[in-house]
Amino acid sequence: MTTTPRPGTTHAGVVLAAGTGARVGNRRNKVYLPLAGRPVVAWSLELFRTVSGAGRLVLVVRADDLELAEAVLDRELPGVPVDVVVGGATRHESEYRAVRHLADEIRRDEIDVVLVHDAARPLTPRAVVEEVLAAARRTGAAVPGLPLEGVVRVDDAGLLAASGSGGLVSVQTPQAFRGALLLAAHEAAARDGFTGPDTAACVERYGDLPVCVVPGHPRNLKVTYADDLFVVERLLAAAMIPPGRLHQLERGPPRGQPGCAG
């Protein structure tokens, strides 16, 4: 069943940039490194700005990066309202602080869905965001994923398992959830002291509903190491995509991709 947003209701985009990015090998947080003339984080913020119906945009940063983040926003997204929230020591805590920042509007039903995205995924197609948003409105919780290829199961004896690798996916972001569900899940996790590896883990544990998997995209890469920046730069150069058009590319789901029933 699809939930149609009532008039005046919007969705919120949360961009997580509170990690250290140490594996890139630069003293500066990786999301502020240059990518085709813009900081990595600017591409993710621009993506959410272009999605129809976006009412709130939240950037979660380290306390040490607060001034840098404000400078990037002033330069890269002038006039675009972006709430800056200082994150915590873990990804889970950073997510929780962003959700608490939106709590009053969620409780007033002014925000129906919250999308949580890694700032280090600058090439996410807009179509992926729109699909995961629609799936979250339909089912309550959704993530994009790609089938894992060339992966097999190994049993306890070190032998190939008969079941093969069917059903395994690599989960991407943005992950999207109905606001009230996400807020309740994080509040329950805080009471229990639970810390999950991503947003979906928290919702799976406390939301009492399965998380839907929609088609991800191979271009939705996460910048983790220095070589990843090189790869992303080359993809941008090969596509010759101007900044304002990057996230408008259409895409078809890879074959064998899981999906959610309508």
What does this structure look like?
The chain is globular, with a radius of gyration of 18 Å. The protein has one domain (10-241): Spore Coat Polysaccharide Biosynthesis Protein SpsA, Chain A, CATH 3.90.550.10. The termini are close together. It has helices at 40-50, 66-76, 91-101, 103-107, 126-139, 179-192, 199-206, 226-239; strands at residues 10-17, 34-35, 38-39, 54-61, 83-86, 111-118, 141-147, 169-171, 175-178, 212-215. It has 262 residues and is of the alpha/beta class. The protein is built from eight helices and ten strands. The model is unreliable at 249-256 (pLDDT under 50).
Our Rg estimate from Cα atoms comes to 18 Å
Order of helices and strands: EEEHEHEHHEHEEEHHEH
CATH class: Alpha Beta
Principal-axes shape call: globular
What's the β-strand tally?
Answer: 10
Looking at the overall shape, the CATH architecture is Alpha-Beta Complex
CATH superfamily: Spore Coat Polysaccharide Biosynthesis Protein SpsA, Chain A
Name the average pLDDT. 86
Query: What would the CATH topology be?
Result: Spore Coat Polysaccharide Biosynthesis Protein SpsA, Chain A
Main β sheet profile? 8 strands, mixed
Beta content:
15-25%
Count of domain modules: 1
Structural class: alpha/beta
N- and C-termini, Cα separation: 7 Å
Estimated helix fraction: 25-40%
Spans with pLDDT under 50 lasting ≥5 residues?
A: 249-256
Number of helices: 8
